[in-house]
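ping. complex inputs:
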Amino acid sequence: MSERWETVIGLEVHVELSTKSKIFCACSTEFGGRPNTHCCPVCMGLPGTLPVLNRKVLEYAVRAGLALHCDIDRETRFDRKNYFYPDLPKAYQISQLYRPIARNGYVDIGAKRIRIHEMHMEEDAGKLIHSEYEHETYPDYNRAGVPLLEIVSEPDFRDSAEVLAYLEKIRSLFTYLGISDCKMQEGSMRADVNLSVRRAGETALGTRTETKNINSLRAIEHAIESERSRQIHILSGGGAVVQETRHWNDDLKTSTAMRSKENAPDYRYFPEPDLPVIFIGEDFLQAARDSLPEFAEERQARFVEQYALPPKDAARLTVRRETAELFEAVVSRGAEARHVANWLIVHVPHVLKTLSENAEDIAPDPSELAELIRRTESGTVSRADGLRVLEALLSTDGPFRVSDYIRERGLSVNNDESALEEVIRRVIEANPKAVNEYRSGKTKAIGFLIGQAMKDLQGKATPATVRERMEAALET
Amino acid sequence: MDILDLTAVELGERIRKRELSALEALEAVYGACRARDRNWNAYAAFEIDPARTAAQRAQALLDSGEAVSPLAGVPVGIKDNLNVRNCLTTCASKILRGYRAPFDATAVRKLKDAGAVPAGTLNMDEFAMGSTSETSCYGPVRNPWDRERVPGGSSGGAAAAVAARECVCALGSDTGGSVRQPASYCGVTGFKPSYGRVSRYGLIAYGSSLDQIGPLARDVRDCAALLDIIAGPDPMDATSIPFPDTRFLDALNGDIHGLRVGVPEECFGDGVEQDVQTGVEAFLDELKRVGAELVPLRLPFLRYAVPVYYILATAEASSNLARFDGVKYGFRAERYTTIEDLYTRTRSEGFGKEVQRRILLGTFVLSSGYYDAYYNKALKMKQMIMDGFAEAFRRCDVIALPVSPTTAPALGSSLSDPLKMYLSDIFTVPVNLAGLPGLSVPCGFDRRGLPIGAQLLGASGADATVLNAGYAYQLATDWHKRRPEGLEVSGNV
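pong. complex structure:
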């Protein structure tokens, strides 16, 4: 007797903001760094220190709230969340409970709307480093005070695909805003999963658990599946789910109970007396509205319309704001949109893969890229050479002019592809002896054939290209 | 004449005239302390080398003509809850045993920049929680007017040191009367500025929304001179307020003709010692004689102030003091098993009884299920008290009342009954709740020869008005010039 079950999921997503300095002091937010080197008396919570809000954090938060279609609280303020833990230098976290910066928003994933309950600003805690050899633990406060946004959704998800789509959407929105890089592996985006199950058709929510320590998209999928099965197993056997916080272990692909509701800490939230209420004026809000970029979805639609791109291509070009902007910049410099799209979707990722580079780390000059695409697509540079130039352009050798590069290396070809084919065909026909030698294993004979072809082409082709084509022709 | 009998402004003048050096002034302080601080225990620690370095730096500023402050070269005692770079800063608590501050509090930095010399750290109630200065881990402070009596608290070391001529002026802190009440018990002048007037950066917090650094000194002029140096908005303190810039010392003209002095009827009568009442009434008569107009007031909301204060202050304290957990600095219990055990043992052994009592109170009022009944209600009452004062200040310019219902109690008589001790804060805590400036001036002695203090309050930001009223009073009287008997001469000019 197999019953049908519905899974109900709500997410608490933490996103690290990419401000240069921390939320309440001037220390660097840079990831990594030797332990306790990005710290000062304020983020270490030394006696007598006081927090001062980094204005950039407020700007970023307001823009994020607007992007999530939230109401912005015009009188927002901070609260203290009190608990003892060695990674929390003041033994309280400055967060927002009573007057969060944003409430009542939503995110659309396809046709489905996920409601946002609230979004608030807070400071991150430090990290504990457990010694492998000694029974000791060392706190590292570099991360303490790094600004975070916590986005609390309503329990609107029904499966992990929706959860992943939502996280992708938040990542897209926030990278478009330029307020976070949302890298789960570096911890700049983290998600806690609230999950309950109920029999299909039921309307009341089941007892939920919260699973923490989920550090990748794949881990979220696994954690959701694991928790869903665990709860269904309990309920099917006539048991009851205990409301508790669970800890995900990604190596074992299983979670363990951390603490039950009865043992939940009482955080004794109260208004942070060291930070005054923040009054958000109309000017500030309007400036935030005006600064919102065209996000991926609108941009995708426009690309389809304006550049006659297939929706699939437009979607791929708009995943990252930088790619979309590069696309338009290159097109505006005279390369044809469908060619540019093809290069950015196919060639660039391929070259980056061979170079082992990340898309985030490159920023080719759009004018040069346009030049290269034009010349390759028009046939004045062979495709193989064009890709070589692209490789040079994307590698970290430093900027150069594509036209100079092509001239200096003699990469420009006189004839189009068919002319080259034609010359090779004629040379093969006219020199049966050399062809036979080559085919019988004396591969050096190809040098003579290439020489003949180059003579015919008046030297305006690359020997490498000719060799490539010649070899191909001789193999057939 | 003892140079430590001079006011800070007078001493500063002599230093500027090269009659003595900054270092000599500092050595006079040390001489006095060596000779007699064992009698009062006013100091928590001397940091002789850094102080001498500061004095030499001040002298260099004076010699080069860069130091123009009236207090350049003047030694200033610093309460043990203000960070002084590289010096012990312990809040008179075992839990901060050996802690050296890595930075200067903004007020201390401003003192140094003005050429004043932080001379040593002054004893206090542990974490500024108390009205008697008996809860210090360095032992109780005694009142220079009567060794068997308390000097008041929590800035008792500061008040005693100024009274006993062991320093000329000092910085204290006032969360519920901690500057004004010990000033009153020790016969010196103490001022709590408007909330936000002086940066709290570097003041180890007790009740963040109530704490304010304030001067204790020989007279109102010295308080004004110190305030001139330490006041002003600070980018490191988001709660500091950019009040219009005032030169407090220059603003003292002693003219209070037509000044409307509100007299709240609740502050005279039941619960106030007869001698205190008589002393403060004489103070009112004197103000009237020099030109003020007395306005009868009713401030019925004052009776809520003590419970509201003890809810808000302890709630904030329970959070502010949570960082003292034995993990990063200060005292750590010697033996422990788990991290929870480390916390529990460290905090149980490191904090004294009164501090633990207030942490527990504050933790309770913030607890789930009690928050609305206590903390939230107290916040609303605080607003009511602020509104009540704002209303009163439409009818008068300053308000006059006693600082404390009594003069200094005997040592050991208060701690056994904390509720009684809390209730004696009735005239000082409302001022912190409303963020007002409050001045304590000596206005006579009771029949046992103990000083009586009168208090003047102003609207938020009206610090200069309050100081000028006190100055007018001191021009007409000499209570503030009285010194306790039995002080040995510590060095002649």
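The mean pLDDT of chain A is 91.
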